[in-house]
Amino acid sequence: MNEFEFMLKETESKLHSIMAKHNIIRVAYSGGSDSDTVMHILRRNGYNVKGVLYDTGIEYQATKDHVEWMRSQGYDIDVVKAVRPVPTSNKQYGHPFVSKRVSDYLYRLQKHGFDFQKDGPLDFETLYKKYPSSKVALRWWCNDWGEGSRFNIMYNKGLKEFLMEHGLPFKVSDKCCEGAKKLPIKHYSKEHNVDLMILGIRKSEGGSRAGVYKACYLPKKTYTYSMYFPMFFWNNEMKAWYDEKYEVRHSDCYTVYGLERTGCAACPFGLKFTDEMDLLETYEPKLAKGIKNIFSPTYDWTLKYREFAASM
User: pTM of the predicted model, to two decimals?
Assistant: First the structure.
């Protein structure tokens, strides 16, 4: 037995013990590579669990086509529409900018009239007296969370200096994710009394999601259901071995377009959104045009900020 076979055996043993504890189970299925593999593992082990894809309204056509192919293979997948489509969230609350955390803090500051250029240089105590309802965001702005903390604005190189020099000509928020994913998940899980949600999160991926979770199984606490990540401890080599051994098929987003991720098309939170836009214009030009209309301010100012930070 090689190391991959051993890890698979361990994964499947844990899988059986978790599945035995729950009754109404769903897979948060994105149409992405990891969620494909999760669905395959479950079926191989005798569990025909329904997948749920939350359609944000800006999914790749290749993702939609792949979902239909999965259904043709007998996989049961629900598609749930956004409670508040991304364009609506942008218009109502503001555009995404840099990252979810940054967008959240900027939303809180802008909501109370914070002026980046006039208020920016002031110290925390002065700002807190002026904006008493924005303490958390002000601590972020003033780098008050301790040296090296990712909750400080200095975690994003040059961002504070950029905003103090240029300001922002549009409102910012992270609520595109709330209306397109978080609320649909909340409503669906409540409607169907879901008590376990399975996700294809892997610790080795990094990113905000993987960084939040420290274990592969989380009992009910924050959510109304428990969460389980069968592949949490798999590295890329393990994942590639499994997919090749069991011939797991993935979306054209990976095999034709050459993308490394799926989800919202050319998401402005992604480091490589410009590359994704280039691919969209090649393979899905109609969607590319729509995405540009939605995220144009974000794209322009993110690139402007990146150029500023690179010059520091």
Answer: 0.87
